[in-house]
Specification:
The chain is mainly alpha-helical. It has 32 helices and eight strands. Among the domains are: about 210 residues, no CATH class; about 110 residues; about 70 residues, no CATH class. Strands 1-2 form a two-stranded antiparallel sheet. Strands 3-4 form a two-stranded antiparallel ribbon. It is elongated and about 115 Å long.
């Protein structure tokens, strides 16, 4: 990106080195003046790696000819001194003699500023000696551009696939080129302001009719330079160019690796991982050198994130990213020796690197399949894998809930590895008990509350929590503790439970987004009337039912159950599901956030039935209820004045769908007492999904 325009500047600058309103030109036609006619096409081909060597040489030779002709045919004002406009007029009149090619005054003025950076002197005037130096520089620029030419398709991401060795060759040549350019500037050059760089890029975008406004990257470069190189954000000083070249090489190399190897469907394969690791280690090495000299302050990070957001290069909420950054440097990778908890220090970078190595080394174990049994990393991942059924994502990111133990795919293991790492960090950061911390066991309710408060902005962004909800951590705790494949109902969120929870959350988010896209088309008019807040309830209910088997094909038992429902049963099911995830009084529409929550909760409901509906008849009978009771026993005992009634209460709820203790109606209390007095042999229960939903709604205030 930045490198492309740097190259363009070098090429054009060679053709335009100062002047203003020229003196009379001798009445002689300058020879070879048609050599610039293919300038724009040559640039486009060069940047995409399609320009021939001959075309590149011809362009540079044309630049040399034009300057030699200028010296030959244009008279100077004083001995060896020309006004800048003389050169512009000469080039436009004899070499760029078409509206499509001529240099505008603003562009030429910025090119003169570039001349000043490389050769010194003035922007308004140019010396004969400077023109002669420029002619000499052209040979060096030509040499650099010819050396880069074989790699331009790689550097401009015009190639669809690039081997690791080819990419490394391209990056090595880019590094060599940037160092040579930096050396050319520092030999005689001067500082260069980011305001001029911004104007130059704007003018180049106009000149080359580019669809991308490259000037939007300049504020990011300025903030990056301030944070990682120092010496302010307004100018690049002469002594800074060597470091700027290094930054451009490292950042551009990371960007290319992202484009070629990471942001692909096959990021988890070994060749891609090796390139990712090579780039990461290179970046860590660069940052270590930076942090040996200076810390990077929270304010500098904030300014950089805001610059990225303002540029709209990527869709970024700078406040949210900064919040996560602050948690990371203050909690995950704390540096007790540093008085400012939010600055990036060398010690914190080492913490980042250790965590990265934990992830990437585990990722290599996944794909290489060697020496797994000896690795504690693999043992930890196995803890995440060893559930009653495998949590494998399909091509749409959904987890299949059919109770089968199918082999894990590399992609699913890659996602599992990320979720494992996050849960590991949470436990190591927030667990107060040393054993739970060191052995990666889990978090208590109070510890989860602290983590929830820190990560609440992210949960709000995901649409899982309302901004004013201070108690959602309790819901997370009980859902994790009761509704996961390995939930045991104890007093902590276990490592395995936390990973399963994340797996189902992200599966639900992916699935919810897919369904949302279809419903936005089906309910387009209603969505428009609601100004994009959600779906009208009637339309939502109708189209969810119509497409249920397709929307929830990853939950075959749920699909079978819903298909057996009459329409009124479906409406009841939908209403109660809505009640479980939302307390909003207005039920005329469903927000996008509520929709996702319902999809996520159906994952939890299916887990419950996969665990305890062992004969797959769609209901939980008395024998199955006893196994489920062992899980829910502690939770129920916490709610009851007399823990001894927990088992009768549990079966009563499975029979009638509500909690009589909290309802407070006399008839309910009498019916419950009658149930208690009955022999268990007379208890007849068969709770289907609708009945279980009723129970959860009845208990939702306690969840």
């Amino acid at each position: 990106m930045y490198f492309k325009w740097l190259l363009i500047v070098l090429i054009i600058t060679s053709c335009a080195r100062e002047s203003e309103v020229k003196r009379p030109i001798r009445a002689v036609q300058a020879p070879g003046t048609e050599c610039f006619k293919d300038t724009k096409e040559t640039f486009r081909k060069y940047l995409s790696g399609k320009a021939s060597r001959a075309a590149v040489i011809q362009f540079w030779q044309c630049g040399k000819k034009s300057l030699k002709a200028f010296l030959k045919y244009v008279s100077d004002d004083a001995e060896g001194v020309y006004k800048a406009s003389y050169l512009r007029d000469f080039l436009n009149r004899f070499y760029l003699n078409s509206k499509d090619l001529e240099l505008s005054a603003p562009l030429f003025e910025e090119l003169m500023e570039v001349k000043r950076v490389f050769l010194g002197g003035s922007r308004k005037k140019i010396l004969r000696s400077e023109l002669e130096e420029t002619i000499s520089l052209i040979d060096q620029f030509m040499f650099i551009s010819l050396e880069l030419r074989p790699y331009m398709s790689v550097l401009s991401v015009s190639s669809s696939k690039v081997s690791s060795s080819r990419l490394q060759q391209a990056l090595d040549k880019l590094d060599w080129s940037l160092k040579r350019v930096a050396l050319l500037i520092t030999q005689k050059g001067s500082e260069y302001s980011f305001s001029h760089m911004n104007q130059l890029f704007k003018q180049l975008v106009l000149y080359f009719e580019s669809s991308t406004d490259w000037s939007k990257f300049v504020p990011i470069l300025a903030k990056f330079k301030k944070a990682f190189i120092g010496n302010g954000e307004t100018v690049v000083r002469n002594m800074d160019w060597e470091y700027v070249a290094k930054v451009v090489r490292v950042v551009y190399g990371d960007w290319l690796r992202l484009k070629y190897y990471v942001l692909t469907p096959y990021w988890y394969q070994e060749p891609q991982l090796k390139e990712l690791d090579r780039g990461a280690e290179e970046t860590f090495a660069y940052l270590e050198k930076v942090l040996e000299k200076k810390n990077i302050s929270q304010e500098e990070i904030k300014d950089l994130l805001e610059a990225v957001q303002s540029s709209q290069v990527i869709d970024l909420d700078s406040q949210l990213v900064l919040h996560i950054w602050n948690i990371s440097v203050k909690k995950f990778f704390a540096d007790k020796m540093n008085s400012s908890p939010f600055d990036l220090t060398l010690e914190k970078l080492k913490g980042f690197k250790r965590t990265y190595r934990n992830w990437i080394d585990t990722q290599f174990l996944i794909v290489k399949k060697k020496d797994r049994s000896k690795s504690p990393l693999w043992s930890e991942l196995k803890r995440a894998m060893n559930g009653p059924w495998t949590l494998v994502n399909d091509e749409k990111g959904r987890i299949r809930l059919d109770g089968k133990k199918v082999p894990y795919t590399p992609l699913s293991l890659g996602r599992l590895n990320v979720e494992r790492l996050f849960i590991r960090l949470l436990i190591q950061t927030y667990a107060k008990d040393s054993q739970r911390k060191s052995q990666i066991i889990g978090l208590s309710l109070d510890e989860l509350q602290e983590a929830f408060q820190d990560f609440k902005p992210l949960l709000v962004e995901l649409g899982l929590v309302k901004p004013d909800d201070q108690d959602y951590y309790k819901t997370i705790f009980y859902y994790t503790n009761l509704f996961m494949p390995r939930s045991n109902g104890d007093k902590i969120v276990q490592y395995e439970e936390g990973i399963d929870y994340l797996r189902y959350i992200f599966s639900g988010i992916h699935q919810g987004e897919e369904i949302q896209k279809a419903l936005q088309v089906a309910c387009e008019e209603g969505v428009s009337e609601l100004k994009g807040k959600g779906f009208p309830l009637a339309c939502y209910r109708e189209h969810i039912l119509a497409g249920f088997s397709q929307f929830y094909e990853n939950m075959p038992f749920l699909v079978s159950a819903i298909q057996r429902y009459k329409k009124e049963n479906w409406y009841t099911f939908q209403k109660i599901l809505f009640d479980v995830v939302s307390k909003r009084a207005d039920r005329s529409f469903v927000t996008f956030s509520e929709h996702k929550k319902m999809v996520i909760f159906l994952h939890f409901l299916e887990v419950l039935f996969l665990r305890f509906d062992q004969n797959r008849d769609g209901v939980i009978g008395l024998k199955e209820a006893w196994k489920a009771f062992k899980l829910f026993k502690r939770f129920l005992e916490r709610l009851l004045p007399n823990p001894e009634i927990a088992w009768p209460l549990f079966t009563y709820m499975l029979k009638y769908g509500y909690n009589p203790v909290t309802e407070g109606k006399a008839i309910s209390e009498l019916r419950f007492k009658n149930w208690q007095w009955k022999p268990e042999s007379e208890w007849k229960i068969g709770a289907d999904r609708l009945m279980v939903l009723r129970i959860i709604r009845s208990l939702s205030a306690s969840l």
